[in-house]
Design goal:
Elements lengths: L2 H12 L3 H8 L17 E12 L2 E9 L10 E2 L2 E3 L7 H13 L10 E2 L3 E2 L5 E10 L12 E8 H5 L3 E2 L11 E5 L2 E3 L1 H14 L4
Parallel strand pairs: 1-7
Antiparallel strand pairs: 1-2, 1-4, 2-3, 2-8, 5-7, 6-7, 9-10, 10-11
């Protein structure tokens, strides 16, 4: 492949339109109604993968968890959390937790589907990642007790930062990590990003 072809490929990926991303993700997205029973012996949880556009470039909205939390403190994650009985379905968990953590309300109709569920390395959680793709996002408002900061990362550049996560090799031999602006993204969040990498970046 010539340097010009490589440049054009990179440029195309960085400027992927909403419809193009949906088309690339569609084969992997499921519309099944995940229930807590799907978690079997693990703790059911759900997150919302928010892809949106800023200056015509797709970004992914991440949060840095508060350092005062009992579990996964200071880690980079998607908005979301544990299922509670009143949620009924895990999609409701993802939407409720997103509103609580960053103050943005999404409806089920705005969710394109879910990627493959992942498990955490250290806390035995079964996490379903639901995906929404938005042209623009309203202003967010973080819940200080849960979220220390938001990280709005360029999607393609962040996916291309993929590396083997040798630090956590003992926990999972197929672990990967991503980086953005000095932040290390690992664990279950990285497993979700790896799915996006395989669909949007990795050559077929």
């Amino acid at each position: 492949m010539s340097l010009e072809s490589i440049y054009l490929t990179i440029l195309f990926q960085e400027l992927l339109h909403k419809e193009e991303i949906l088309s690339l993700l569609k084969p992997a997205l499921s519309d099944r109604p995940y229930l807590p029973a799907d978690a079997t012996s693990a703790t059911p949880a759900a997150v919302l993968v928010i892809i949106h556009y800023y200056d015509n470039i797709p970004h992914v909205f991440l949060t840095k968890r508060s350092s005062t939390l009992r579990m996964h403190r200071s880690e980079i994650s998607f908005p979301g959390g544990r299922y509670v009985q009143s949620d009924g379905k895990l999609l409701a968990t993802a939407l409720r937790e997103t509103e609580e953590e960053i103050g943005i309300v999404f409806t089920p109709a705005q969710v394109a589907g879910s990627l493959r569920a992942v498990r955490t390395m250290t806390s035995n959680q079964f996490i379903v990642p639901f995906v929404t793709i938005q042209d623009v996002l309203p202003m967010h408002r973080i819940a200080a007790g849960e979220v220390e900061a938001v990280i709005d990362a360029p999607l393609i550049n962040t996916l291309k930062s993929i590396e083997p996560d040798t630090e956590h090799y003992k926990l999972a031999k197929d672990a990967y990590k991503f980086t953005h602006d000095g932040n290390i993204i690992w664990g279950a969040t990285a497993r979700v990003l790896k799915q996006l990498y395989d669909l949007l970046v990795r050559p077929s």
